[in-house]
Amino acid sequence: MQSNALNISINSITKTYGDFHALNDVNLEIKSGEFLTLLGPSGSGKTTLLMVLAGFTRPDYGSVKFGEEEVILKPPHLREIGMVFQNYALFPHMNVEENVGYPQKLRGVRKSETKHSVDEALSTVKLDGLGKRRVSELSGGQKQRVALARAIVFKPKILLMDEPLSALDKKLREEMQIELRQLHDSLNITTVYVTHDQKEALTMSDRIAVINGGQLMQLDTPNEIYRRPNNAFIADFIGESSLLSVKVHGSTTYMGASEICANQTPGRDGDYLLMVRPEKLFLADKTEKDANFFDGRVEESIFQGESQLMVIKLDPEIYGGQELRMRLPNGSETMQALPKIGEKISVGLRFADSFLVD
Predict the structure, then answer these.
(1) Whether 193 and 248 share a structural domain
(2) Mean local confidence (pLDDT), 221-238
(3) How many domains does the chain have?
(4) Does residue 255 belong to any structural domain of this protein?
(5) In this predicted model, what pLDDT tens digit does every residue of 123-158 receive, in sequence order?
(6) Tens digit of pLDDT for each residue in 305-338?
(7) How many Å apart are CA 221 and CA 18, to the nearest integer?
(8) What is the DSSP string of 92-112?
């Protein structure tokens, strides 16, 4: 199945409910054919923005263009978008084939043509031969695939998905993440995906738009957002991190009484946070070059299958008693070398992995 993808231009979109700003002057350019994820906590505005794109929510102000066409006043059924909802929204009185073919029926497509497009859509989502099955006879993963087939049966140029995997168990959700990404690549379609799951966003996206408080906080590739978050909210929200208080004076950065080296020099003096990803820390003997070193005591050591999570209380006289979290792979050599709870420990963080955030 092929489709000619469209770019999406979102300009100055604002939506208020009384004094509450669900969206506050949002500007966003979504590239033709890209998989863009709107990521944020509950109530951040990400679903409201998706509903604006779909036409179900009318903003107070702003512009939305699909390609060169302004669609802000266009009703949902004329926007030619595929939509996958969180709760699937399947018709229980229809079988799989009838559910998938419903958009074609609404468009007045001939039965023979509808049959061909439905078979093609079901084959695309790996549901060949299940056309006559009732919705009540399907598993959660199969229902999700039916909803997806219905969204792509008429070959839309834009696909919108509102937390479509949230009802699935962890293993199936992770399998479907890969399948959805592969499907996106095969269809040549512009996909806008809403989720509050950071790992899901990092796994699937070409770019991620982090939204909080109705505002766009950062737009970048998964790698850049994870490595270089714009602020403490993003650093804390996406992935695990320890945020340690530091002070910058001139070209020098201090953590308590200790001087450290960061990857960048901020443009102003003042208080910052050192973002430390747990997997970037390593057990140190202080002979390594180009690394910051921290001394402390092991507070907790937690076995988590493939890794060991250690909570380290830093020396209160030097670092003010702040806490670090370190994650080490659970290899046999690593396990033997791990300090026990209560023991002193020295850990390293390379300069290249030492980032400051506001």
Answers:
(1) no
(2) 92
(3) 2
(4) yes
(5) 888 888 888 999 889 888 888 889 999 999 999 999
(6) 888 899 999 988 888 888 999 998 887 566 667 8
(7) 34
(8) TTSBHHHHHHHHHHHTT--HH
In terms of residue numbers, what domain contains 320?
Answer: 242-357
Q: Using a cut of 0.90, tell me whether the model's pTM lies above it.
A: no
- Clarify whether residues 41 and 189 are in a common domain: yes
What token pair was written down for 75? 């009703």
Q: Cα separation of 200 and 178, whole Å?
A: 10
CA distance 98 to 195: 29
Q: How far apart are the first and last CA of the chain?
A: 46
The three-point CA angle 160-161-166 to 5° equals 175
Give CA torsion, residues 11, 49, 159, 189, to 10 deg: 30
At 33, the pLDDT band (50, 70, 90 cuts) reads very high
Could you tell me if 10 and 165 are in contact, meaning their C-beta atoms sit under 8 angstroms apart? Answer: no
Long-range contacts from 202-207, C-beta under 8 angstroms, 24+ separation: 202/226, 202/238, 202/239, 203/174, 203/177, 203/178, 204/35, 204/37, 204/177, 204/180, 205/35, 205/36, 205/37, 206/31, 206/34, 206/35, 206/36, 207/31, 207/34, 207/36, 207/37
